[in-house]
Design a protein that fits this description.
This protein is mainly alpha-helical and 331 residues long. The protein has 13 helices and no strands. It starts with a helix and ends with a helix.
Length: 331
């Protein structure tokens, strides 16, 4: 067996990137999550949602992707031909790299202070989506990208401060060494201390709100407001490129919701000693709860203006998340 392992060892990174927890597994989760969100959103608006393609409409997101892949890839005059595809591929690679740093990976990659690398990688999809709008001559694209970058300067600060709270606490009390993976496997212990639990609740709240803005969902669907600027940065994209744009958005939701599941909700806790399949079910349930909360916010709140969103973050969310982080460092 040892000889077989040594032979297959070089193939493990390829398997992780391409199959699990990489591209193939992520695509499956994205398909299910999109169907789940669409059904929830429809029910909250007294509609049915997807119901024809596949059992209960489960394959409708897959059908939508297939349809887009066979559509014509139209490139507008003076638009870039290859750069958008390169940026989209780079964003998918960045998100897969973050998955390899989480406990969901069978052979996780981690080191001290790797949270810095994770935060850096998580910014790439946002920058890609913003750049896409500037790569076309459309005024809608430029306006949407400008709005997105304006929001990024607000919500990314909050998201960073929020994520650092469990990382700092776990590093100070549990020896997590400012590692995303080590924090993910030990963060559940933070809830056993009342003072630390209060800080975790504050950080969880601000993380959810900032993630809602990161995903450009209501009330922060400002960059692609349909009634104002059509589809914002994505107005001039069609076919396979549009499919990849949607996939990156959904994969970004999956990865960040999974990070919240592990960092704030303890992953498989309290069943950390249960069989692996039981732990997987616990993680999946918590992940679906996070998605449920994000969908509920989307269905219940109307869109903000740009100035209202920026004011919300800088006046309320930044001080709140900064308070939690400072006390995490001092307590």
């Amino acid at each position: 067996m040892l000889e077989v392992y040594e032979v297959l060892k070089p193939l493990i990174p390829i398997f992780e990137v391409l199959i699990y927890p990489g591209i193939v597994f992520s695509f499956i989760v994205v398909i299910f999550t999109q169907w789940y969100r669409r059904k929830l959103y429809a029910r909250m608006q007294n509609r049915v949602g997807p119901w024809i393609t596949g059992p209960k409409g489960l394959l409708q997101p897959l059908a939508d992707y297939i349809k887009l892949f066979f559509k014509e890839d139209i490139v507008v005059i003076r638009g870039h031909l290859k750069l958008p595809a390169f940026l989209l591929a780079l964003s998918i690679g960045a998100l897969v790299a973050v998955l390899l740093m989480l406990p969901i990976s069978p052979f996780p990659v981690y080191a001290g202070f790797d949270i810095i690398v994770a935060i850096y990688l998580l910014v790439w999809p946002t920058l890609t989506l913003a750049a896409l709008g500037f790569l076309t001559p459309s005024p809608y694209g430029a306006t949407g990208s400008s709005r997105l970058l304006s929001l990024t300067l607000a919500y990314e600060v909050v998201y960073l401060l929020s994520v650092l709270v469990p990382v700092v606490l776990a590093s100070r009390y549990l020896g997590a060494a400012y590692s995303l993976y080590l924090t993910s496997v030990t963060s559940w212990k933070l809830w056993t201390h009342p003072a630390l639990a209060v800080l975790m609740i504050i950080a969880l709240f601000t993380a959810i709100i900032s993630l809602q803005c990161k995903l450009m969902d209501k009330p922060f669907d400002i960059p692609d407001a349909e009634q104002e600027i059509v589809a914002g940065p994505f107005t001039e994209y069609s076919g396979p490129k549009l499919a990849f744009i949607i996939f990156i958005h959904d994969m970004e939701q999956y990865v960040n919701a999974l990070i919240i599941t592990y960092l704030f909700l303890g992953g498989p806790a309290p069943l950390i000693n249960a069989p692996i399949w039981v732990q997987a079910i616990v993680v999946a349930v918590k992940y679906l709860v996070v998605v449920l909360v994000l969908t509920w916010i989307k269905a219940m709140v109307a869109r903000f203006r740009v100035d209202q969103a920026i004011k919300l973050f800088w006046k309320y969310m930044v001080p709140l998340s900064l308070f939690a982080l400072i006390f995490s460092s001092l307590i």
